Amino acid sequence: MRDKRPLIFDLSHKELSNIFEEWGEPSYRVRQLWDGLYRNLWNNAEQFTVFPRPLRKKLGSYFAFESIFAEKESIADNKKTRKILFHTPLGNPIEAVLLQTLDRYTLCISSQSGCGMGCVFCATGQMGFIANLSSGQIIEQVLHFARLLNQDHKTLSNIVVMGMGEPFLNFENVIRALAQLNDPTGFNFGERRFTISTVGVVPVIRKFAALKRQINLAISLHAADDELRSELLPINRKYPLNTLLEACREYVHLTKRRLSFEWVMIKNVNDSVEQAYRLSKLLKGLLCHVNLIPLNPTEGYSGQAPAKQRIKEFKAILEQQNIPCTIRIPRGISIHAGCGQLAGFH
Ligand code: SAH
Ligand code: SF4
């Protein structure tokens, strides 16, 4: 059942101020509300004991405080990887994954339920598009894990929008959510600690570049020629490599920020010496970094990750051409929490 009340996390500080003003509440009450939501991490009107009882009641009957419901938690990698499957009131699945590395916690969140981009090797793509998440639903994933960590006096280090969905096809809500989490008077999460990953929606890359935000950007490249890229990523037929790279150069030019490129390594598909040289040529002179991701298994794709040695050779070619490169270590594979494995049912 859909809750008719507005989700409180969907509303900006300004919008909440307007409502409180209409209710005849003084402005310090809005400050207390914002503090409660984004500093104390409250998610229930009853927790607002700083408010008189009637206001607490009004808050609880006017707003919903939850619109994604944690249904299942899966844990792997010696408890260092935790995945939560949420459902919306309409039953749409959303997944988010917390990755601990030493004392750092990176949270990978979803921007959509499912994805319509159809990348052949991706389980989210294989399930198809279900729905865009609202900005509040994106924020709720973050606050859910922030509360969990808070119990152990820990905090999130980084947030990556690399879960289910294509963030640049839900651009307004993603940017709104990150801006709201960035607010220094609230959750105060620095922009440089966010990363958005896109499959390459060129007009939106340009739009994002023009915003000149400090948020990091990652581009899923995966192939250095149009024929192969179009086979793997159908979006390449709409926005081929030359237009994509042009937008990337514009991004770096406008923001002066280093771009990341992601390259899923698939045995005998895009792991050749020739692809490594082509890639180096494409990226020549661009302020960037390449992440090599060994392919994670998904039900709908039969490809495999190359042997370790092959990945190292690919990396060596890039580095020889002065392109910084790292190999991403697979995480959470046993619980289907790895890159591209989120399908909302495991
Ligand atoms: N839609 C965005 C963000 C989500 S996907 C995008 O495509 O960039 C996050 C990353 O996981 C992308 O780089 C994607 O290409 C990669 N990925 C998808 N399927 C994968 C798989 N089976 N193994 C490893 N990485 C995968
Ligand atoms: Fe969607 Fe990204 Fe998966 Fe492609 S790789 S189907 S864009 S989530």
Description:
- The protein has 346 residues and is α/β, with parallel strands linked by helices.
- 36% of the residues lie in helices and 19% in strands.
- A ten-stranded mixed sheet has the order 1-2-3-4-7-8-9-10-11-12. A two-stranded antiparallel sheet has the order 5-6.
- Helix 5 packs parallel to helix 6, helix 7 packs parallel to helix 10 and helix 11 runs parallel beside helix 12.
- Bound molecules: S-adenosyl-L-homocysteine and iron/sulfur cluster.
List keywords for this structure.
346 residues, alpha/beta, 10-stranded mixed beta sheet, two-stranded antiparallel ribbon, elongated, binds S-adenosyl-L-homocysteine, binds iron/sulfur cluster
List the helices and strands and how they pair.
Layout lengths: L12 H10 L4 H12 L14 H10 L6 E8 L4 E7 L5 E9 L2 E5 L3 E3 L8 H5 L1 E4 L2 H17 L6 E4 L9 H12 L11 E5 L3 H10 L4 E5 L5 H7 L2 H4 L2 H15 L3 E7 L7 H11 L4 E7 L13 H13 L4 E3 L19
Parallel strand pairs: 4-7, 7-8, 8-9, 9-10, 10-11, 11-12
Antiparallel strand pairs: 1-2, 2-3, 3-4, 5-6
Helix pairs in contact: 1-2, 5-6, 7-10, 11-12
Bound molecules: S-adenosyl-L-homocysteine and iron/sulfur cluster.
Iron/sulfur cluster binds next to α4.
Q: Give, in order, the helices and strands.
A: HHHEEEEEHEHEHEHEHHHEHEHE
Uncertain segments: none
Average of per-residue pLDDT values = 97
Specify the number of helices: 12
- The structure class reads alpha/beta
* Order of neighbouring strands in the sheet with most strands: 1-2-3-4-7-8-9-10-11-12
Relative strand content: 15-25%
> What general outline do the C-alpha atoms trace?
elongated
Q: In percent, how helical is the residue content?
A: 25-40%
State the distance separating the first and last CA atoms. Answer: 23 Å
Bound molecules: S-adenosyl-L-homocysteine, iron/sulfur cluster
Total E-strand runs:
12
Question: Mind summarizing the main beta sheet?
Answer: 10 strands, mixed
Radius of gyration: 21 Å
